[in-house]
Design a protein that fits this description.
Elements lengths: L3 E6 L4 E7 L6 E5 L13 H6 L3 E5 L18 H15 L4 E6 L2 H11 L4 E7 L10 H5 L18 H8 L1 H10 L1 H8 L40 H14 L2 H5 L4 H8 L8 E10 L14 H6 E9 L5 H4 L1 H15 L9
Parallel strand pairs: 3-4, 3-5, 5-6, 6-7, 7-8
Antiparallel strand pairs: 1-2, 2-4
Helix pairs in contact: 2-3, 5-6, 6-7, 7-8
Length: 340
């Protein structure tokens, strides 16, 4: 088996996706976040294909070879969820296991809460349920005020999202001007020394930029990305730009309204796995209250902390793959591939 490239096209949207594994295997669909691509799951696709799953990873709306749209409103969660339902329809099975990371996490959470019949189970890396789907004001209400006193950090580590809302063009300009250098800076492994300290994202508005105004030229972190992988990311973002990917941050109010239409009052009955990255200081779930609502609203929740930074699937693929496989075998046996 090997990874193959595919296109799912409807009258409203085109999704490019990677696939691996037997075509009749149970579906597991991996949803990337910002500013990534389907290749973010390059360590997961062959592993789950070898287990007998049909493993799928799309380029999300605004990324890579999927449709790119000109307006920030085009990147609301409701549109993105519909993209994924159309992708699932094109693949054949009625339901799938969904795995999300970063902005891919609210996508799978919204699939689970709005369309539970299309979800065999849901897993998320770094971003817990009942958080960003409810909008920016909601996640700010869960900020750890011991690290981020309200008088000094009113939006806590989420200040960079406020910066997007208030100064979108200014926020993305350094990224578009220095794509390769920006990605080298972004894709870095976790640093244990940052635990308990304010994240750099908490200073975005004060510094008029998430990077202090300039993009430093740092060495590539080979523990997260190879030169080949980095070149693929850079080529896609140089071609499409950061307007689409960063527009995902511009729909908090409409996303919160969309969440009001959830099924079952937002309670999830299917098996759920949450993988917490201990050294992710933006989606900080080790010490803060951010994951608390998830623990209330997920009836069949499994949690595991991995000593990793934000790019968990790329930095610690063995640990992530092992955690996913064990959870599927133990908690979702109905989808485990049967011997042929």
């Amino acid at each position: 088996m090997s990874v193959t490239e595919h296109i799912a096209k409807t009258s409203r949207h085109t999704t490019f996706y990677l696939a691996d594994g037997p075509e009749n295997g149970p579906l597991i669909i991996f949803i990337h976040g910002w500013p990534e691509l389907s290749i973010s799951w390059r360590h997961q696709l062959p592993t789950f294909a070898a287990l007998g799953f049909r493993a799928i990873a799309p380029d999300m709306r605004g990324y890579g070879r999927s449709s790119v749209y000109p307006h920030t409103a085009d990147y609301a969660q409701e549109h993105i969820v519909r993209d994924m339902l159309e992708l699932l329809d094109s693949l054949g099975p009625r339901s799938a296991v969904w795995v999300g990371h970063d902005w891919g996490s609210p996508v799978v959470w919204n699939l689970a809460s709005h369309h539970p019949e299309r979800c065999d189970a849901v897993a998320s890396l770094c971003v817990p349920y009942h958080a960003i789907e409810l909008g920016l004001d909601h996640v700010i209400s869960l900020v750890d005020r011991k690290i981020y006193p309200e008088s000094e950090y009113p939006a806590g580590q989420w200040d960079y999202m406020r910066y997007y809302e208030e100064s979108f063009a200014e926020a993305i300009a350094p990224m578009d001007a220095n794509v390769y250098k920006f990605l080298k800076l972004a894709f870095r492994k976790g640093n244990p020394s940052g635990e308990g300290k304010p994240a750099v994202t908490a200073l975005a508005r004060r510094q008029r930029g998430m990077l202090g105004g300039t993009v430093p030229d740092v060495p590539r972190d080979g523990d997260v990305v190879s030169e080949e992988d980095l070149s693929i990311y850079a080529a896609a973002l140089e071609r499409n730009g950061f307007v689409g990917p960063s527009s995902w941050y511009m729909n908090h109010r409409v996303n919160a309204d969309y969440f009001k239409s959830v099924c079952n009052d937002g309670y999830l009955e299917m098996p759920v796995l949450f993988l917490n990255a201990q050294y992710d200081y933006v989606c900080e779930c080790t010490h803060s209250r951010l994951p608390e609502p998830m623990r209330q609203y997920c009836r069949k929740l499994t949690e595991l902390t991995i000593r990793s930074g934000h790019w968990m699937a790329q930095e610690k693929p063995r640990e992530v793959n092992a955690a996913l496989a064990k959870w599927l075998a133990m908690s979702v046996p109905s989808v485990w591939p049967r011997p042929s």
